[in-house]
Specification:
By secondary structure, the protein is α/β, with parallel strands linked by helices. The chain folds into three domains: about 200 residues, Rossmann fold (3-Layer(aba) Sandwich), CATH 3.40.50.1110; about 270 residues, Rossmann fold (3-Layer(aba) Sandwich); about 90 residues, no CATH class. It has 21 helices and 28 strands. The strands form six sheets. Strands 6, 8, 9, 11, 12, 13, 14, 15, 16, 17 and 18 form an eleven-stranded mixed β-sheet that branches. A five-stranded parallel β-sheet has the order 2-1-3-4-5, with helices on both faces. Helix 7 packs across helix 8, helix 15 packs across helix 21 and helix 19 packs across helix 20.
Length: about 700
């Protein structure tokens, strides 16, 4: 009897399941939804891939139409099309609307922008009339890239305005918002015509919408930057964030501090803990009803990012003081290292197919974990980064975390986010391996390494924005006190362009860390023979630091090597950088941050009287002062005699009876030797007269 009752119950349950209708999902949109340009569209469009991901419990239909506009007065209004009528007739339980791309056309947005919100609201209401229980999501537009023919003629700007209106609709019309822009904006390789994603791009769309429909984001996760042994920035509200399934309540504890968060429909949660003073170790616990993550040995202290190219990547094992420094690393207890390393050497002549594929998928930087400094962990870490961490920990008396993600050979433009460059300099993306925006050496190295590539849209770490997407985005949301930046060798061909790019770079990173005054400590290019642009570039770096708030310069030309672009005296460079950090960021006025810094001059007869900041104890590092030159109105430069007069210097030349300009250290490999009281050197400089160097 019991067996019969059990069988009856199982049959009844199965019958009820079979009686349930699949959840109806309508994918409403334009050519991106339709699957324009995708081979075997019926199988590979995003709605088709979404259907396979969701399975038989869902009935997913594609109601996309190429060229459709949201605007009812646009070129091809969606509401006038049979796809719209079929979508409404379908009476969806869930409607996912991706419209607006074609409204960025000059015939649409300039004329009818004010009608966008009313037209979108009318579309939403029509689905609610068809099915009052319909769950509606509006989508942020998929990207338009710089290769689009109208990108720089305002389509880029109209795209942003349409996106802002869609966000406003989501906030006011009681509908959900799905971000289709962010997951794809870092993948121009998936957009053959700069507008329509290919099947791989459609797969990202399908996965994004699947997460929204099911609320399943794979459970509880923390960012890769969160691990045992991590250092959290002190004296700043502590942001703990991650991924979980939609609606999950997340409980967070750090030591005795508690917080809660609820996961949103996009799978994200975030909680802010109050700022804490330096200390530890703490345990960080993050849990939902079904999952729990526990991280041990957490410290509150100071966190610094050390980034740039090969001279920042230059390891402790390679530097002049390697044996002593590596042994000393075992004695440290308060230095923590986080090392993002390239998966392939930027110096390799050619990359194989597997490497090229990983690079295109933004997998160039290998996942890291926080590690305590020791002989084994420090030897392959940045020598400058290691010494900055060691010196800061000793001076500040707290734990210090150093993040390093430097990539040899990388140009500045590869470190700037796509939105910033698309706004200020979109042409830099076009045929980037062929134009002179990038240094010839950079372009040739990239082309050689991509020689085996089979895709015309193969990506490379030197490509504009690539390293921002592969090496900075993984750090997003992890607060740092500041940045130590050693880069410029791969932009030294064009100091004027570098000056523009550097301002975009600051804008980019300061926005990323939501810190407009984030300090940057830049290390000036050193000395080397046969690099004729380097004096001018070093002076441009000096001017950038002099004229840009929050940017500070460390001089290293006296530590250069005439034959090697990688001088080995990194400990000394790190000591200079750390002195500047302690002075400017931590208020240690007893520590000099710089050597003599050229301020200006006055003409005194046949001489020029030079004035300096940080001018205490001017003297020659060895022998007589050298490295100075003067010029008259004719612009010809001549070696000058320099004489120290208190905190000033008089320079003159018998060949220039009426000097009007001065320069110093103006050789690729310079032996200029002016230093201040603490022995720190003066920078290469050239005076400016009437706006002309």
């Amino acid at each position: 009897m019991k067996k019969w009752l059990l069988l009856f119950a199982l049959c009844s349950f199965s019958a009820s399941i079979l009686a349930q209708k699949p959840i109806r999902v309508a994918c409403v949109g334009n050519s991106v939804t339709y699957g324009y340009g995708i081979a075997n569209r019926d199988h590979n469009s995003y709605p088709a891939q979404l259907s396979r991901l969701l399975g038989s419990d869902y009935d997913v239909r594609n109601f996309g139409r190429s060229s459709a506009t949201l605007l009812s007065k646009g070129r091809l209004p969606y509401v006038s099309l049979p796809e719209y009528r079929e979508a409404v007739k379908f009476r969806p339980d869930i409607a996912v609307i991706h419209l607006g791309l074609n409204d960025t056309d000059p015939s649409a947005w300039p004329n009818y922008a004010d009608e966008f919100i009313p037209d979108y609201r009318a579309l939403i209401d029509s689905f609610r009339v068809a099915n009052p229980q319909c769950q509606i999501a509006v989508c942020l537009l998929t990207p338009i890239f710089t290769g689009h023919r109208r990108f720089d003629s305002s389509t880029r700007d109209w795209h942003r305005l349409v996106t802002a209106r869609i966000s406003q609709i989501a906030e006011t019309a009681d509908v959900d918002l799905i971000d289709l822009y962010t997951p794809l904006h870092c993948h121009p390789d998936l957009f053959p015509d700069a507008l329509h994603p290919d099947s791989a791009g459609a797969a990202i769309l399908a996965e994004t919408v699947r997460g929204y429909v099911t609320g399943n984001y794979g459970g509880l996760r923390l960012p890769a930057t969160f691990s045992d042994g991590m250092v959290i920035q002190r004296h700043r509200p502590i942001d703990i964030h991650g991924i979980a399934n939609a609606g999950d309540e997340v409980n967070i504890s750090l030591g005795k501090v508690r917080a809660k968060a609820t996961t949103t429909t996009d799978g994200r949660w975030q909680a802010t803990l109050p700022e804490m003073p330096a200390g530890g170790p703490y345990t960080l616990t993050v849990k939902t009803k079904t999952e729990k993550i526990t991280l041990q040995d957490i410290w509150i202290g100071e966190v610094w990012l050390c980034s740039g190219q090969s001279n920042m990547a230059f390891t402790l094992a390679e530097c002049a003081t390697a044996t002593e420094d590596i042994a000393a690393a075992d004695t440290l207890t308060r230095v923590h290292l986080y090392h993002l390393t390239p998966m392939a050497s930027p110096s390799n002549p050619q990359w194989d197919a597997a490497t090229l594929d990983a690079v295109t998928q933004l997998g160039y930087m290998q996942t890291a974990r926080w590690e305590k400094a020791s002989a084994s962990t420090a030897k392959d870490f940045s020598a400058i980064g290691f010494h900055v961490g060691r010196l800061l920990a000793d001076s500040l008396g707290c734990h210090v975390g150093i993040i390093c993600n430097a990539v040899g050979g990388s140009p500045l433009e590869s470190w700037i986010d796509r939105t910033t460059l698309e706004t200020h300099l979109p042409a830099i993306y076009q045929r980037w391996t062929e134009t002179d925006y990038s240094m010839d050496w950079v372009r040739q190295r990239a082309k050689e390494q991509m020689r085996q590539a089979t895709s015309p849209r193969q990506r490379h770490p030197f490509e504009p924005s690539y390293l921002y997407e592969a090496a900075i985005k993984p750090l997003e949301g992890y607060p740092v006190a500041g940045v130590v930046w050693y880069q410029g060798e791969s932009n030294a061909h064009n100091a004027e362009l570098h000056t523009r790019l550097f301002h975009y770079f600051l804008e980019s990173w300061r926005a990323t860390w939501a810190k407009p005054d984030l300090p940057f400590y830049t290390i000036q290019l050193s000395s080397i023979g046969n690099r004729p642009t380097w004096p001018h570039f070093r002076d441009s770096q000096r001017r950038l630091a002099e004229n840009t708030p929050g940017v500070f310069l460390t001089v290293s030309h006296d530590l250069g090597d005439s034959l090697d672009v990688h001088p080995k005296q990194k400990r000394e460079v790190a000591q200079r950088v750390t002195s500047a950090i302690l002075n400017h960021t931590y208020g240690r006025t007893d520590i000099s941050p710089s050597g003599p810094a050229f301020k200006g001059f006055e003409i005194e007869g046949t001489s020029l009287r030079l004035t300096f900041d940080y001018a205490w104890g001017l003297h020659a590092a060895d022998g007589d002062l050298r490295g100075f030159e003067v010029a008259g109105e004719d612009g010809f430069w001549h070696t000058a005699t320099a004489v120290i007069d208190g905190c000033q210097i008089l320079v003159s030349s018998a060949e220039v009876p009426h000097p009007v300009a001065v320069r110093y250290g103006w050789q690729p490999f310079t032996r200029a030797n002016l230093v201040g009281l603490t022995g720190l050197p003066a920078s290469t400089f050239r005076s400016e007269r009437g706006g002309i160097y």
